[in-house]
Amino acid sequence: MQKGWYRSWVGLVAALTLIVAWPAQALEIVFQPVAPQVYAYIGDIEGRTYENEALNANLGLVVTPTGALLIDSGATFQSAQKIAAAVRRITDQPIRWVVNTGGQDHRWLGNGYFKAQGAEIIAHIHARDDMLARGPEHIRANSPVLKEKLVGTEPVLPTRWVHDDDTTLDFGGVTVQLVHRGGGHTPGDTMVWLPHSGVVFTGDVVYVDRILGLHPVSKTRTWLKSFEALEALAPKVVVPGHGRVTTLAQAQRDTGDLLRALRAHMGRAVEAGVDMSTAIRTFDGTPFRHLKHADVWLPQLANRAYLEMEME
Prior knowledge:
By secondary structure, the chain is an alpha/beta fold. It is built from 9 helices and 12 strands. It has helices spanning 3-16, 77-88, 105-108, 111-116, 128-146, 220-233, 248-272, 276-282, 294-311, and strands at 32-35, 38-41, 59-64, 67-71, 95-99, 120-124, 160-162, 166-171, 174-179, 191-194, 199-201, 237-239. The strands form 2 sheets. The protein has a 7-stranded mixed sheet.
């Protein structure tokens, strides 16, 4: 990497870390550079709204000599069209590949548009059953919020499934590693690691600035394994699933530390026979109060972590 670019890149990353998220407004998709030929769109950190078209998550773009790799396809067919237009403002290369980093709606419900354009769509096999089960559920849940903006959206599965924990692929001469450790937020959660630039797109393995979410399909045990795999990569730049472009240290504070604290506290409570209500009440969420939506989500996170550890 040339020194001039490196200095500019470091300055840019520092500036991006000051950006918490764009406020809720009419959806405008702009990819910002984070490394040479590597870009990120930083989505809203609020909930799903008509204005943000349920694209309250981050996306990635890697431009190669023979085509563009898109990381996550958006929540709807119509937002996928906007994503494609935003990519065209960056490069003339066609979007030849799409990686879905998990089974949450904004990771893959734009697949139909990109499949129709001839893109190969890739995800981990552990995402398949989750997508099949929850795709229609996502459509139903988003319908009253998105209204006509959901028109044209159908659950379209990836065209290629990978099966290994670590899968190395070549996209136009660029080496990309897909890293999966059993999921976390969703079963198919997969990180996209770019060893040539030191950038990792974590999907929902990492949340910064806002509190992480646990759902019935989430598993803190495998989520922590996924996070440990991230730590082993020692990336220079972390593009989280939600929140600003950041560092590994910030990812550890906002996601890794919270997962570890939940599992440690709830594990002790379950082992000691402490009832769930007491375990939730005595969980110290103080280090995580700075995260958006913490007051709403922390009790729910504690609840789900306790129930999960009862079953382990």
